[in-house]
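INTERNAL AUDIT FORM
Audit reference: QA-55
Scope: verify that the stored structure record matches its stored sequence.
Auditor: D.O.
Record contents follow.
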Amino acid sequence: MADDDLKLGLHLGYWFATPPVGVAELVRAAEDLGFDSVWSAEAYGSDCFTPLAWHGASTSRVKLGTAVCQMSARTPVATAMSALTLDHLTNGRFMLGLGASGPQVVEGWYGQPYPRPLERTREYVDVVRQVLAREAPVEIDGRHIRLPNHDEGTTGLGKPLRSITHPLRADLPILLGAEGPKNVALAAEICDGWLPIFLSPDLDVEYRQNLAEGFARPGARHTSLDTFEVPNMVSIVIDDDIERAADAVRMFLGFYIGGMGAKEVNFHASLFARMGYGDVVEQIQDLFLAGRKDEAIALVPLALVEDVAMVGPLDKVREELDQKWRRTCMTTLLVNGTPDHLRVVADMVNG
């Protein structure tokens, strides 16, 4: 990918205790600055579709994506219904980003089983694509999803159906949130893009190998990165004091390493362990799970922050963008911040 092909996206994330303020202004600024896309997320509070419908009504050009829609929150048909509805309402601007989440949320919040997530993802995406293609009534006899469902306990009266509403696009882009090598390869095989959560330029060779494995599989939708999207969120904090800038990112990283997952299964922690931070990751988890969250966050090394974020003086950040991040497989740089911050980032990327 050529340097000047790097696109910009605004990542809104998910809500915390209350809805965030100033988002409408932020979305307008992003569209005015030429940002390519706006993304919404969900965890176990606000949903990812409603904000995009709201902001889609006040924009006309910017694409709108979920990063990510948690698959266990909805049946694949329900997700496809939301996707095709939003795609119509926004005149073909919607992108569906999906993710498996983790067992604590899937089984604790949604009450769904988590085992064999890759197999479940493959079936889920298959159903969504059947709905969007609308070539025939939707049918699948999978290990996890069966349509029609004639299992014991049903009436046995279910029949194959196709969407009453004709989707605007059968090829509506589907992207997959993935961290582990096998899941990244699956994204390249069955989806139109990969949504990392913590991408490190130092692991770019590994990422490209994982993606190439998926591109090479029989029936893969894409054969190379030339037609494949990799939107990636990068925290950018500009401050002459590097440690102070890093502190703004440490809280986010410490929370994901220590608290977003069980000690036994935390895909974020496993990712940072693969980056070479296994010992400190274990310490952060132990402190976080013991309720010593401030100590856990303070333990996040500056090197780890700089592996996945850009922090420090403007010249340093600009150099890292040009010398490291532009050379990765990332196709869209996703950022957040104030409208003024978006302008600074846009100037760096497009200048």
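Auditor finding: record pair retrieved intact. The chain has two domains: 3-236+313-350, 240-312.
Action required: none
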